């Protein structure tokens, strides 16, 4: 019992070094996040790294390296829940994914430190900092580069608005026009738009299209008797 409450100095020093490594490396990761004014900044990343190091180090002292494996698994799942708290969905936009991933990496750094693997902890830290800084210009360049609509994998829908009594004919016309343009239909949905009109929505099997071709299909459908409006929309894949 005495050995458990007051471990030998070498083990205490070992734990202190593990925590110090986690603190320093977590500070490096968190400082970059704090500089860019992210929700999870300096203190959060340091605490995540310290917590992971402390739990892994504790299991190392009690049961050795084999016992620490289970603790690492718990750290991974636990930080996953923590990261979910910084992810926010605003309409079609999702924010916080990069911050959540950085927290996850901070936990990995702490786990390496707690497992007495400081060199690996430093390497992971360097990789995280490189990913969050050196890749930023490349991301900006890719986002600004013009691309064709056919290069985007997405879900495409074509909608026509018709009188409530013309649903069957509108459905047939929609399928006919799309298949003639070599865009097979994966599904048809009818949505009520008030008492007198409905919207017939066709979901395409294709995940990439030519915008001009769908524009032509929509224009041709609008010229058909009974169809008051025709358009198409796209939702990018996750």
From TrEMBL:
Q: Where are the transmembrane segments?
A: 12-30, 42-62, 68-88, 97-115, 121-139
The record ties this protein, via InterPro entries, to: MgtC-like_C, MgtC/SapB/SrpB/YhiD_fam, MgtC_SapB_SrpB_YhiD_N
- Keywords assigned: Cell inner membrane, Cell membrane, Membrane, Transmembrane, Transmembrane helix
Q: Which domain of life is it from?
A: Bacteria
Q: Which residues form the MgtC/SapB/SrpB/YhiD N-terminal domain?
A: 19-139
Matching entries from Gene3D superfamilies are given as: 3.30.70.260
Chief location: membrane
Q: Which residues form the MgtC-like C-terminal domain?
A: 156-232
Task: Name where it's found.
Answer: Cell inner membrane; Cell membrane
Q: Provide the membrane topology annotation.
A: Multi-pass membrane protein
Q: Which family does it belong to?
A: Belongs to the MgtC/SapB family.
Q: What does this protein do?
A: Virulence factor required for growth in low Mg(2+) medium and for intramacrophage survival. May be involved in regulating membrane potential by activating Na(+)/K(+)-ATPase.
The protein here is known as Protein MgtC
Taxonomic lineage of the native organism: Bacteria, Pseudomonadati, Pseudomonadota, Alphaproteobacteria, Hyphomicrobiales
